[in-house]
Amino acid sequence: MAQDVRKVLATDAALELIKLLKTKHGPVMFHQSGGCCDGSSPMCYPLGDFIIGDTDVLLGEIGGAPFYMSKAQYEYWRYTQLIIDVVPGRGGMFSLENPEGRRFLTRSRVFTEEERRSLNLL
User: Which end of the chain is less packed: N or C, by CB atoms within 10 Å?
Assistant: First the structure.
């Protein structure tokens, strides 16, 4: 039986914050920062404000919001499940959660061999 394995998921706290941001800003999207200005943070933008191109990979959705990462970064993280969480603090400079007193944080874990097989990563 095939296992339903997601490349990105969110904690309840992250889903709650996404819901709040969608109420305030409408549909949103995420792009995993590559580490330039805001470290390696998941950045939340109004849907369509961040231009997605051929160098981005859609990992899935969290809270109904698409979640992208650059292809180059994905090559390093392809065997890892991203778990988007929330911690106290200020978000990335351009991320919508910045004024909320909480910020998104990426946690991760390496896929098991069975999960890699179900994702065709072996």
Answer: N
